Amino acid sequence: MKIQSFGSMAVDWEERIDYARLRRERLERANEVLHRSDLSAFLCFDMNNIRYITSTTIGEWARDKLARFCLLFRDEPPILWDFGSAAASHRLHAPWNSPDRWRAGVSTMRGAMTPHSGIAEGVARKVAYELEIRGILHEPIGADEIELPVLLALQAEGITVLDAQQPMQNARMIKTEDEINLLNTSAMMVDAAYDLLYEHLRPGVRENDLVALVTKKLIELGSDQVEAVNAISGERCAPHPHISSDRVLRPGDQAFFDIIQSFQGYRTCYYRTFCVGTATESQREAYRVCRNLLDGAIDLVKPGMTTREIAASWPPAPEFGFANEEEAFALQFGHGIGLSNWEKPVISRLVSLDEDFALEPGMVFALETYWPASDGYSAARIEEEVVVTPTGHQVITRFPADELLVAGARYYTADNALSGNTNGEPRWSAEMATQGAGVERPVAPDPAPVLTGE
Hints:
- By secondary structure, the protein is of the alpha+beta class.
- The chain is built from ten helices and 18 strands.
- Helices cover about 30% and strands about 20% of the residues.
- The protein has a six-stranded mixed sheet with strand order 4-3-2-1-5-6.
């Protein structure tokens, strides 16, 4: 398994992502799971499944509308009903499918179309016609995400609708070579974003300033969607709120970030934790525990290992301040990444302790851990993306995280590094001033000397 990262362009002088192979292999895998199922067709409204099957997308604005839908029959090219003129565009620019299978059509757009419009019934008639001409109208089909009016209309046509999300998750679970390299390239972009963030992490900067900075960098590098830059700092770290704000960073803050974005549809979920200016002992200890929990889980990753064994390596929720596993859900966590951030396998004490879901080569997932500091408000959060290889694993997230990094300006007195006391813990010391160099403090112009205490 050759894992590489590339620039965002295709070139003639180097073999990079083979998009023709990517399209072919994804469709083949979807067909394989359809053949193994008891279903006669997949009816997909999920944007990620539609992209996997048809290799089309019309932008992230369409992701939450449930407007597009496709049908996949056994051993046939898919049929896609797309949003208005997008179908005509596919006929011009997407020659990997027959032009007559790129069709205009729309679903109810999360209820925006009223019942009087007849749109739900129109979707059902389109599907019923395709089933009837193939002689399979009374055989069950599978659907992934479906609005209730459309489901009721399909049932009124005599169509039995079962679940297609599980077989499609199974198809997408084992990544192809090109998918793995797209995920690796996507992770590379976040490596660069974290380097930029580290340079700008300092007192006076707001969380949303950092969100804007990182978003701009990712778009410049070729990201096709920055879904979230989850910026959490200071007193907001414990418990984890899962949303950034306009909080202004202060000296001594612990801060963690999750960067979720995609390159050619393939996503990242990638946490890092920093301290601003210096770190207290409780912040350092929280980071050490968080890192050890993560490393212990990563060490277990290899073919044949189960999600139960990885989840069991993490502490129960009460050990880090939560009443139960639902309250602590996604803090000690693993989840597949691909065209979505929520793919198989899911690794959590909430769901994994009673199942033996074995890891296989080609799986790609993120492992993330969390630990609150003893000061009552700081916390550490770290995440790595891991590829299961035939002999073990490879981590594809590379921004340094083995030790707690300290960013931001340093402050000095005439004799030594500035010393202070906040909540009973030393914030500044000569020892701390030598760790995690962060942004270099400016050198004062002559003739005023800068005394470092060294």
